[in-house]
Amino acid sequence: MSGSSSGVPTGEPPRRPDAGVVTVFDAREWPASERVRRWTDLMSLNFGDLELSVPVEEWESTLRVVDLGPVRLSEVRLGPATFRRTDETVAAADDERALFVIGDLGTVTVSQLGRTAVLGPGDLTVLEPLHRVTAEFGPGSRSFALHVPRRDVALPTRALIDLAAVPRTGGGPLQRNVVDVVRSIFSGEVPEETLRGSALGVGLAGLVTALVVALRSTPGPGVGLLERVQAYIDAHLDDPALAPPVVAAAHHVSLRYLHRLFEDEPETVAGYIRAARLERVRRDLDDPGMDRFSISELGARWGVGDASLLSQRFRRRYGASPSEYRAARRQSAPSPGGRPSGSNTSS
Known about the structure:
With 347 residues, the chain is of the alpha+beta class. The protein folds into 2 domains: 3-217, Jelly Rolls; 225-332, Homeodomain-like (Arc Repressor Mutant, subunit A, Orthogonal Bundle). It has 13 helices and 12 strands. It has helices at 35-47, 87-90, 157-163, 173-186, 192-196, 199-217, 225-235, 244-250, 255-261, 269-286, 295-301, 307-318, 322-332; strands spanning 3-5, 23-26, 51-54, 62-67, 72-78, 81-85, 97-105, 108-112, 115-119, 124-127, 133-137, 141-149. It has a 6-stranded antiparallel beta sheet. It has a 6-stranded antiparallel beta sheet with strand order 2-4-5-12-7-10. Helix 10 runs parallel beside helix 13. The chain starts with a strand and ends in a 15-residue tail after the last helix.
């Protein structure tokens, strides 16, 4: 019989781990009929609101968690099972932390933003908190998760988007060092007094920061969502209906996610659309071959049907109205005699 549950805590709430202590949660401590619900509550507390489905209710799983200050680590022994973060649960997500997932035993398959990463032992990927995700755990799987504040590891929104669900198989020395440190913590090789101190968490955060720099310098397949969005906008400027909701729907992302995508850019999504349209109009005004078109027609050509609005925005951006801009270009254009068309031809 299959079981499923949403990430809404019910009954006795699960407890958060104590700082520097490896806290163990074992599903076998609960009655079989309550395991799915309780495990969902527990995982939602540690990973954000999730939905869980498993093929049988009498399944076994363990979660070990240790809080090291800036970094929280988890070891998940689970499977087979599937976790999902839907559009509804994304709304409650903690968008200030990045989640690094490391495979250890068996396989874990994570899908996000149209990409899929199948993680085996030592493989790693990053998940973005503000978009839906599916994680499938194979039978007898064991994996690790690192929760790291984005501000501590130089991981802005755009970089996180490009790295999300991109598989890093094997990895270089930095990735192997991170994996080895995490494994040693959960294997009991690290003394308890070291876990309780602050140096280990700070050092691990520094190591993860270096890993992020390495990952960003070697992007994997399927990156460049921002560039694809901008290319889509540039190709649809003539559509008066072009707006952020339309762009988000065309790329299968939420509107909130789209706005975060432009967080580190000079313009917002709407600002990018406006600026691109105004630039196309300006180029047309610079082209003598377009003089046969009125200002209104040029605006409509690039999706701006309101001539008054076009004039206001154009003046704000370029310091002159479209008519003034065109007139100034005509005034400075060379005449057939080689002089500007508005110049005095007398000696």
